[in-house]
Design brief:
The complex is a heterodimer.
Chain A (H helix, E strand, L loop, with lengths): L1 H7 L2 H33 L13 H28 L2 H33 L7 H22 L3 H15 L2 H11 L19 H33 L4 H11 L1
Helix pairs in contact in A: 2-8, 3-4, 3-6, 3-8, 4-5, 4-6, 4-8, 5-6, 5-7
Chain B lengths: L2 H16 L1 H21 L4 H33 L2 H7 L4 H30 L4 H28 L6 H28 L5 H30 L1
The chains are: A mainly alpha, B mainly alpha.
Chain lengths: ~250, ~220
């Protein structure tokens, strides 16, 4: 178990390990997306009030879920890098940011598109939406801060501190719907209670969440691999690898 | 409070009071920005009272944002921060002292000016009182939270713009509850809840931001 952890912390080992893993992840992502989209967009039952508009949910909810997951992952791996000074942890943290930012943007856009026919407005300054906008700003701030430093080590550590500070926002987003009784509805799926939705809708939603999860991991892996190549470009094994590719 | 903390705060205040201009600027900025709104939006007293809570809070937030740089950047560039750290003063203590001095010099004058702006904006007596109290509880949190962003951007090119990007999202919760409290007061609603949340944010920011700020400061210095 521990040797596995140590190995994961080595960029070279991670690069070689994910080489074999990546095609599988890509395939699983593709299959889950095809199945999930088919279930969600074609076969799931309609909402009695919203009609077809409810199908946006299958794009919106997993995006929201994963963008928060991405932030927590980014902050925790940044924290690990900060405390134990592990190079790989910083690489993971930095690689999370753009994916999370895109998913946050996707969530905001799909939310707006859904909001127009349902709430009658694209945007409403309610607690959930506002705190989600803050999440987008936090992602952008993280990336801006990281690119502002010339020294990569300082950039890694400074942006990790920022990510940890911004972690305060995550529970606020999650509980905003319960603390403030706002326009955005509460959670439908919870760990402990029976979900308040149709079984076939639930199946589609869970498949889509799994698809997004695998999408996130696949892209993350790909990003980490390019980040490793970029950072280790002076290392012998990278030179050999890239040199071979060119011949 | 230990004697070294008091010495640090005295030092910060001494630095500020040597150049008195700098400590007038944020207050002047506050007054000028708020006075733009009646000119740009409407001089109608009823509508002014309606937008007053937001205007006062946004202006206070921006002037604190502007004041942050003066407390950290010169000290960083002249090597004062480095000397303090080398002398064994803890980073948390430095950040806490700087935030407190920042509030005494920038935040407190804003708090004192706020009732005057409230009168100009036709707020009623109770709302003015609540504006005063909410700024009194809220602006120190802004100084403390701002110290994190300031320490993160120490010594960076175009750090000012970056500071805005990093810090404004973290200011938003304080802004929301501060403005909400004043708004509730002007509508004759209860304000205890909002003020309690502001107080909680103050306690949290005093406890946690010196830690984050000092970690960030050490990254900039080593």
């Amino acid at each position: 178990m521990w040797t596995w952890f140590y190995q994961m912390a080595s960029p070279k080992w991670f690069f070689q390990f994910t080489e074999k893993l990546l095609p599988w992840f890509k395939a699983i992502t593709l299959i889950l997306f095809v199945v999930g989209l088919a279930l969600g967009l074609l076969f799931s039952s309609l909402d009695y009030q919203q009609g077809n508009t409810v199908r946006i949910l299958y794009i919106h909810v997993p995006g929201a879920f994963l963008s928060m997951f991405g932030y927590v992952l980014m902050a925790i791996s940044g924290g690990i890098g900060l405390i134990w000074r592990i190079k790989m942890a910083h690489i993971v943290s930095v690689s999370c940011a753009p994916i999370g930012a895109i998913l946050t943007l996707l969530t905001l856009i799909t939310g707006a598109v859904w909001g127009k026919p349902t709430w009658g407005t694209y945007w409403e300054w309610d607690a959930r939406l506002t705190s989600y906008l803050i999440l987008l700003f936090l992602y952008l701030g993280f990336m801006a801060l990281h690119s502002a430093f010339d020294d990569r080590k300082a950039a890694d550590r400074a942006s990790a501190v920022l990510a940890l500070v911004g972690l305060v926002n995550i529970p606020i987003i999650h509980f905003s719907v319960e603390w403030w009784n706002t326009l955005h509805q509460g959670a439908t799926i919870s760990k402990f209670e029976k979900p308040s939705m149709d079984p076939d809708m639930l199946a589609a939603l869970l498949t889509m969440i799994a698809a997004y999860q695998f999408y996130f991991l696949t892209v993350l892996m790909q990003r980490i691999r390019s980040e490793i190549l970029e950072r280790e470009k002076m290392a012998g094994w990278v030179r050999k690898l890239v040199g071979n590719g060119q011949q | 409070m230990s004697s070294s903390s008091i010495a640090l705060i005295k030092r910060e205040l001494a630095v500020v009071f040597r150049s008195k201009n700098e400590f007038i600027y944020p207050v002047a900025f506050f007054v000028i920005v708020t006075s733009l709104f009646p000119l740009a939006v409407t001089p109608d007293p009823v509508q002014l009272a309606f937008i007053a809570p937001g205007v006062i809070w946004v202006a206070a937030l921006l002037s604190i944002l502007l004041s942050l740089n003066g407390f950290y950047q010169p000290d960083y560039e002249e090597g004062g921060l480095e000397q303090l750290l080398l002398a064994g003063v803890s980073g948390t203590q430095i950040v806490a002292a700087k935030s407190l001095a920042n509030w005494l010099v920038t935040g407190l004058p804003l708090v004192i000016m706020a009732p005057l702006i409230g009168v100009l904006f036709n707020l009623d007596g109770r709302a003015i009182g609540v504006a005063f109290v909410s700024l009194l509880i809220g602006t120190p949190s802004l100084c403390f939270i701002g110290s994190i962003g300031m320490c993160l951007t120490l010594g960076l090119r175009n750090g000012g713009v970056l500071l805005t990007l990093l810090i404004l999202p973290l200011f938003i919760p304080v802004l929301i509850f501060g403005a909400l409290a004043v708004q509730a007061a002007s509508l004759n609603d209860g304000v205890t809840g909002q003020l309690a949340v502001l107080g909680a944010m103050l306690i949290l920011s005093i406890m946690l931001s010196p830690l984050a700020g000092s970690a960030a400061m050490k990254i900039a210095i080593d």
